Amino acid sequence: METKSGTNFVLKNLGPLILLTVSVAMSTRGESNQIIVAGAAVTLACPHQRSSLIVWQVYLKNGTSCYVSYMSEGNKTQKNCSKNVDWVSTPELDSTLLIKSSQMSNEGIYKCSTLNNNGTFDSEHVLTVLVPPEVSLTQDTNGTVVCKATAGKPAAKISWIPPGDSSTASEILPNGTETVTSIYNTTSAKENNLTCFISHPAWSKSYILNISQVDNEKIKISTILYITLSCLLGILLLSVFIYLWHFFYRRQKKVMENKGPETISRQNNQVN
Ligand SMILES: *[C@@H]1O[C@H](CO)[C@@H](O)[C@H](O)[C@H]1NC(C)=O
Ligand SMILES: *[C@@H]1O[C@H](CO)[C@@H](O)[C@H](O)[C@H]1NC(C)=O
Ligand SMILES: *[C@@H]1O[C@H](CO)[C@@H](O)[C@H](O)[C@H]1NC(C)=O
Ligand SMILES: *[C@@H]1O[C@H](CO)[C@@H](O)[C@H](O)[C@H]1NC(C)=O
Ligand SMILES: *[C@@H]1O[C@H](CO)[C@@H](O)[C@H](O)[C@H]1NC(C)=O
Ligand SMILES: *[C@@H]1O[C@H](CO)[C@@H](O)[C@H](O)[C@H]1NC(C)=O
Ligand SMILES: *[C@@H]1O[C@H](CO)[C@@H](O)[C@H](O)[C@H]1NC(C)=O
Ligand SMILES: *[C@@H]1O[C@H](CO)[C@@H](O)[C@H](O)[C@H]1NC(C)=O
Ligand SMILES: *[C@@H]1O[C@H](CO)[C@@H](O)[C@H](O)[C@H]1NC(C)=O
């Protein structure tokens, strides 16, 4: 019921508006591109503030449309756009539109048409929403380092310092964001420090991630050292053991040798 009356309202009022646009020489038109980072609020201005009729028509990127309108006669407002698209304050004071938290689904063309005694005015905004990616830099055991920018819009750009043997691939996700993965082969890398630069229009500066293979080398060196030390310690302990064993064995042998004649003499004594 409400949608129907909304349709009627828009049609009834847009009819003369369209006619006026054609016939009135003073009609003006403004256009702008609004680029915003997802989650941020955006205001879309409609240049002529006090009007008898203000209609915001929204053509969303997914093919659907909606409107937000105001008529001074009877102080009537109507809309069928989503909750987060509304007037910035009250339309009788301000015709500006506010998107509280812009999302990819809000992307599209926002067209404002106003009507007052001086004529009709159109202004159009093209809204683009940027989604910053999630970033990561990881080291694989098979000699590769992976730099990843997940679910960004548009796709992020990845570069390496030092530039080396790397390959970059991107994958488009169902929701329109893109994941970019760059794999760096460290086998022939001459330097130990690897830096991955990720740039994206949602950021003012590149994201810098670095990884030090020195740690890896250090781990290898220390492992070798540990093994060597353990071996040396083992050998040392073994030598000590052998030495001690020999020492005691000989002593025992000596004792045995010393004991030998005694027993014999004792035996001799018994005989005697
Ligand atoms: C809003 O109303 C217009 C005009 O009646 C219609 O074309 C559009 O599909 C409606 N949009 C939504 C989201 O209901
Ligand atoms: C129009 O309506 C708004 C709220 O819907 C109200 O704040 C405002 O005072 C009204 N203006 C007039 C002139 O009635
Ligand atoms: C288009 O986007 C709007 C706003 O998010 C949503 O309400 C509507 O269901 C979507 N329509 C389609 C066909 O995806
Ligand atoms: C019409 O234009 C005149 C002069 O440009 C301006 O003073 C007046 O406020 C305008 N009227 C409306 C309703 O915008
Ligand atoms: C290296 O390992 C990663 C994951 O651990 C794998 O995706 C990649 O294909 C491997 N590369 C080769 C050449 O085996
Ligand atoms: C898009 O999809 C990916 C994975 O399905 C998800 O991680 C990401 O948050 C989504 N982004 C948006 C803006 O919906
Ligand atoms: C890295 O490059 C070397 C030769 O430069 C190659 O033998 C090796 O397979 C590569 N490793 C990966 C994971 O692509
Ligand atoms: C690598 O980084 C470490 C600290 O993270 C630094 O001490 C070292 O000098 C760097 N090496 C090179 C070759 O840049
Ligand atoms: C990357 O390297 C820079 C200097 O070379 C250093 O300031 C920064 O802390 C490093 N970042 C990480 C995550 O190690």
TrEMBL record:
Q: Establish whether keyword Signal is in the entry.
A: yes
**Where would I find the Ig-like domain in this sequence?**
16-128, 144-212
- Gene Ontology CC entries for this record: external side of plasma membrane
Q: Which residues form the signal peptide?
A: 1-30
Q: Which InterPro entries match?
A: CD200R, CD80_C2-set, Ig-like_dom, Ig-like_dom_sf, Ig-like_fold, Ig_sub, Ig_V-set
SUPFAM superfamilies on file: Immunoglobulin (SSF48726)
Q: How does this protein sit in the membrane?
A: Single-pass membrane protein
Query: What biological-process GO terms show up in the record?
Result: regulation of neuroinflammatory response
Give the UniProt subcellular location, in the record's own words.
Membrane
Q: Which UniProt keywords apply?
A: Disulfide bond, Glycoprotein, Membrane, Receptor, Signal, Transmembrane, Transmembrane helix
Please tell me the species this chain comes from.
Answer: Salvator merianae (Argentine black and white tegu)
Task: Give the molecular function GO annotations.
Answer: signaling receptor activity
Family the entry assigns: Belongs to the CD200R family.
Q: Show the stretches that span the lipid bilayer.
A: 224-249
Record's protein name: Ig-like domain-containing protein
